[in-house]
């Protein structure tokens, strides 16, 4: 309309199902062409619904979706320059791998020889040339997924939507496919929008992550931004390995606010008004653990329940007055720190590592 | 528990039936040996296989064996002589062209009825399975479509008489209401046309039901994927829905073909004695009584039906590979 933007733009998108179920609310998002964006959120938060609206399999109750400035509302999936890799792949069981991959071109009216040449190239790209004549049921889960990918790639879409593409695969294959998907996306230079509820997967693959919760976008950011600066408690908790404190703001100190919590005073960068509720989060790997005395601010006395060896680090499961508290220390400290299992230790962190959360 | 009881009761009854048949035909030696054989085995696996095997033996193999035996046994004034074989039953059938002509007519009729059942049944099944969105309405409509089946078979046949007869509804309409004909058409009843019409009405549900279930359980994601890749509704049907529903069509074809091949009551009542099927022919020999010839006719019919089903299955295999 007024300002034409490249890429995919969702503006004030809502989806309300009959029975007043609001599956998606107030979604505003701009995805640049060539970006790898991951929608991340717990089950039922509206990820699939959002993806279906982008793909044209569902329409927003209100709001607009545009691709390269063109309004997509009401446009059929076939006419959108994007295709979907469905959850569980949705291959055609009665067609061979080659026929599955060539399907999109056949629908476009491309003649047989040409579409087979292109389909073979796409099959080659995903490394399944040897299995071209097999039926989907004669393939493993990972191979089926590659067929699903080849089937959408061959139509040269501007963007590919993937709904839980790695959900059906075992962990080892998931790791492998993460790398392959990312490499493929770089090679092709097209937009990938990928839905998952696995934060590790999102962090490892995305250019940008869109965290959804309770039908709304909670935060959009790079993996690093989300890991370091979760905007609110929902994101902090969902991204994992964050400790959250709640309390009341008692005043300010330079550029910091001071929050009075049941576990002591905490100073954190930011602004706030005295008397208002305040929350902050601190990442597990920014927490230091020692036997020093507990300082007046930014320090708590905790009991070490269990030191979990992770190979490259040690995750400490601590008990803060009955609540779980996490810390991560370098792997070299494992032997030393294990001696404290069942004993009280002191957890501290630097002011600049703490993070003030939105209420 | 209850299903076991029911199975047991059914088995008992079947055994009684077979015993009755045995006493009539003197075929006890074969049947008894066959039913008691596997039971004596101590192997657990055999015990598992036994019920199904006994079932097959009682309901499929034993009757077939009996028909074949009767067709070659020498008739005596008091029954059969199991030690004298004759092919008289068969030669009698092939002496005149009647049997072969009737067989040919029966096959053609069965093929026409099967084809018409596909043409009529597929759209009905499609509408029920994919045109009706709520499962509740789907089931309600399905039961409604099934409703004619609650009426006894003969009643459903007889119901055609006032429709197709000389003074029936159609003739009344043609002659009295629109007046396109001066005289009523006799050929409406007692014709191949009438028989085929009645048979389609009788058996179309055997086509609708398997197609309905095949379509109702179809993977919606595959259809969405086809749409996503640019398929028009017609292409979605041709490329995805139709091929995936073919197993249902195949099962329907087998049902209808086999049932119509064996048909005799409809042909007799609607055909009014002038039109024959293998079934009515066999029945006529049976009434004479000429059991060996009747059994020979039935044996050939079963053989032809088996070949027909084998061809259908073969055809479907080929479809799957291509
Ligand atoms: N067709 C529908 N009718 C009514 N409610 C629906 C429909 N589809 C989805 N919902 C509801 O909308 C909400 C969001 O569903 P959605 O499928 O988008 O979740 P999701 O984030 O993809 O979850 P998951 O990770 O479990 O796949 C859910 O509460 C769901 O019950
Ligand atoms: Mg989902």
Question: How are the SSEs ordered, and which strands pair?
Answer:
The complex is a heterodimer of chains A (359) and B (322).
Chain A: E1 8-17, E2 21-31, E3 36-40, H1 47-55, E4 62-67, E5 70-71, E6 82-85, H2 97-107, H3 112-125, H4 141-153, E7 159-163, H5 171-188, E8 191-196, H6 199-205, E9 208-213, E10 216-221, H7 223-228, H8 233-239, E11 242-253, E12 256-261, E13 264-269, E14 277-283, E15 288-290, E16 299-309, E17 313-320, E18 323-330, H9 334-338, E19 344-348, E20 355-357
Parallel strand pairs in A: 3-8, 3-9, 6-7, 7-8
Antiparallel strand pairs in A: 1-2, 1-4, 4-5, 9-10, 11-12, 11-14, 12-13, 14-20, 15-19, 16-17, 16-19, 17-18
Helix pairs in contact in A: 2-3, 2-4, 3-4
Chain B: H1 2-25, H2 28-36, H3 44-72, E1 73-76, E2 79-85, H4 88-95, H5 98-131, H6 135-146, H7 153-158, H8 161-164, H9 169-177, H10 192-216, H11 220-228, H12 233-261, H13 265-271, H14 278-287, H15 291-321
Antiparallel strand pairs in B: 1-2
Helix pairs in contact in B: 1-3, 3-15, 4-15, 5-10, 5-12, 10-12, 10-13, 11-12, 12-15, 14-15
Bound molecules: adenosine-5'-triphosphate and magnesium ion.
Adenosine-5'-triphosphate (ATP) binds next to strand 2 and helix 1 of chain A.
């Amino acid at each position: 309309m007024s300002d034409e933007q490249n890429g995919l733009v969702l503006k004030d998108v809502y989806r309300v199902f009959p029975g007043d179920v609001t599956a998606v609310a107030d979604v505003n998002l701009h995805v640049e062409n060539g970006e790898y964006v991951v929608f991340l959120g717990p089950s039922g938060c509206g990820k699939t619904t959002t993806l279906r609206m982008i793909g044209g399999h569902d329409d927003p109750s209100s709001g607009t979706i545009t691709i390269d400035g063109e309004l997509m509302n009401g446009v059929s999936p076939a006419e959108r320059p994007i295709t979907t890799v469905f959850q569980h792949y949705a291959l055609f069981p009665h067609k061979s791998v080659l026929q599955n991959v060539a399907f999109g071109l056949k629908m476009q009216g491309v003649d047989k020889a040409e579409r087979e040449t292109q389909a073979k190239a796409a099959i080659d790209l995903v490394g399944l040339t040897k299995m071209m004549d097999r039926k989907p049921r004669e393939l493993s889960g990972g191979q089926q997924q590659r067929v699903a990918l080849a089937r959408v790639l061959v139509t040269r879409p501007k963007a590919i939507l993937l709904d839980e593409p790695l959900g059906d695969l075992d962990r080892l294959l998931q790791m492998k496919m993460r790398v392959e998907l990312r490499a493929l996306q770089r090679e092709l230079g097209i937009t990938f929008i990928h839905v998952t509820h696995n934060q590790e997967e999102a962090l490892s693959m995305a250019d940008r992550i869109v965290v959804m919760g309770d039908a709304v976008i909670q935060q959009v950011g790079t993996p690093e931004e989300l890991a370091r600066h979760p905007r609110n408690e929902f994101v902090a908790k969902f991204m994992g390995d964050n400790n959250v404190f709640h309390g009341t703001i008692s005043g300010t100190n330079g550029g910091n606010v001071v929050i009075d919590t049941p576990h002591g005073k905490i100073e954190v960068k930011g602004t706030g008004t005295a008397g208002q509720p305040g929350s902050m989060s601190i990442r597990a790997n920014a927490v230091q653990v020692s036997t020093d005395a507990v300082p007046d601010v930014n320090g708590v006395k905790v009991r070490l329940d269990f030191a979990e060896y992770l190979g490259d680090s040690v995750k400490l499961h601590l008990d803060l007055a009955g609540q779980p508290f996490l810390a991560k220390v370098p792997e070299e400290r494992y032997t030393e720190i294990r001696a404290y299992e069942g004993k009280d230790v002191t957890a501290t962190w630097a002011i600049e590592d703490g993070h003030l959360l939105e209420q | 528990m209850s299903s076991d009881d029911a199975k047991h009761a059914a088995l008992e009854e079947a055994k009684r039936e077979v015993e009755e048949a045995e006493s009539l035909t003197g075929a006890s030696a074969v049947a008894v040996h066959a039913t008691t054989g596997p039971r004596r085995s101590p192997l657990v696996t055999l015990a598992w296989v036994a019920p199904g095997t006994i079932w097959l033996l009682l309901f499929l193999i034993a009757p077939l064996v009996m028909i074949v035996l009767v067709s070659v046994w020498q008739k005596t004034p008091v029954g059969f002589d199991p030690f004298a074989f004759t092919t008289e039953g068969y030669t009698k059938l092939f002496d005149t062209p009647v049997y072969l002509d009737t067989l040919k007519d029966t096959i053609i009729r069965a093929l026409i009825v099967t084809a018409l059942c596909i043409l009529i049944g597929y759209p009905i099944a499609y509408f029920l399975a994919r045109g009706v969105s709520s499962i509740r309405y789907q089931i309600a409509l399905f039961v409604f479509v099934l409703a004619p089946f609650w009426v006894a078979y003969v009643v459903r046949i007889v119901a055609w008489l006032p429709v197709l007869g000389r003074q029936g509804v159609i003739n009344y309409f043609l002659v009295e209401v629109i007046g396109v004909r001066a005289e009523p058409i006799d050929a409406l009843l007692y014709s191949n046309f009438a028989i085929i019409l009645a048979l389609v009405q009788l058996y179309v549900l055997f086509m609708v039901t398997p197609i309905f279930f095949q379509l109702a359980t179809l993977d919606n994601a595959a259809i969405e994927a086809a749409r996503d890749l640019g398929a028009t509704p017609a292409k979605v049907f041709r490329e995805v829905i139709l091929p995936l529903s073919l197993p249902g069509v195949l099962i329907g074809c087998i049902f209808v073909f086999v049932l119509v091949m064996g048909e005799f009551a409809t042909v007799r009542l609607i055909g009014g004695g002038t039109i024959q099927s293998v079934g009515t022919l066999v029945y006529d020999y049976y009434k004479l009584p000429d059991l060996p010839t009747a059994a020979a006719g039935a044996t050939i019919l079963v053989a032809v039906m088996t070949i027909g089903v084998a061809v259908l299955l073969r055809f479907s295999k080929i479809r799957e590979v291509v």
